[in-house]
Every structure is written in structure tokens, then in C-alpha cells.
């Protein structure tokens, strides 16, 4: 067998979740307990550190532990949701709809990266987006029912 030759392929379903609320006194969710993102974000350690710093500041500046947890939830809940959405967007762009990298010059790669990170529809996917059913959610599979998207399905991106 040649070096790097693959003899088998394994597929792993990918799911991402986030709690609707990261804290509700007396309970707190931090790190991956608050939200599991796709590996495309490479954010696990940073997310845990951000959660710890936020909690430390909330405890230091709040009048009570319950108030600190509510402050933590106000700051971290939307951030966890944003990070999960970023993972979905990166997964769609890098796995489900990967461009032909060999056909792209440096400027096209940079434009693709900016559009993907910003959540903008890239010119590379205009044809796929047009094939989706009218009224379908952005990122929906072609022919999907209006208001549906594939990002939460196992194996999606």
C-alpha cells in the first residue's frame, strides 16, 4: 500500500446544538455544554476561556451570584448561537458546497473567505441558491420546502 493511500472511508454525522439559555440561576452551562459547534470553527478552547472570563467578570461586578448568572447568560447565550451558526456556514461552504479551489486565484479565494465569514451569499453559489425552492431558507437543499434548511440534519456540513 502506498503512503497516504486510503483503504476505507468512514462517515460521521455532524450535529451542532446550543442551549436556548446558557445560565438560569442556580445553573450555568459553559464551554461545550452550552453549545457544540462543528470542527470548522476550531473554537473549543477559546470558547471555554471566553466563558470563564465572562463568568469571572460577572461574579466580580454583580451584587449576587444570581445576578452574575443572569449577566453571564445575557452575554454568552447570543455568542454561543453566533458561533454555532458560523460553524454551520463554514461547514456548508467547505464541505457541502466546496468550490473548485484549483480554478480560483488568490483574489477569488480571499473574496470567498470574506463572503463565507460574513454570511453573505457568494457569487460561487448563485446557481445552487437559484435551484432552491422559492422561499426556502438560505442553505436549504435544492428543492427543499419553504422555510426549511439542512444544517441541523445529521451529516449536514
Strand content: 5-15%
Sheet having the most strands = 2 strands, antiparallel
Radius of gyration: 19 Å
How would you write the strand order of the largest sheet?
A: 1-4
Distance between the termini: 30 Å
Look at the helices and sheets and give the structural class.
mainly alpha
Annotation field: number of helices:
4
Query: How does the overall form come out from the CA principal axes?
Result: elongated
Q: How much helicity do the residues have?
A: 40-55%
Could you give the topology of this structure?
Blueprint (H helix, E strand, L loop, with lengths): L16 E2 L4 E2 L2 E2 L6 E2 L7 H18 L3 H32 L9 H13 L7 H6 L26
Antiparallel strand pairs: 1-4, 2-3
Could you write a compact summary of the structure shown?
The protein has helices spanning 44-61, 65-96, 106-118, 126-131; strands spanning 17-18, 23-24, 27-28, 35-36.
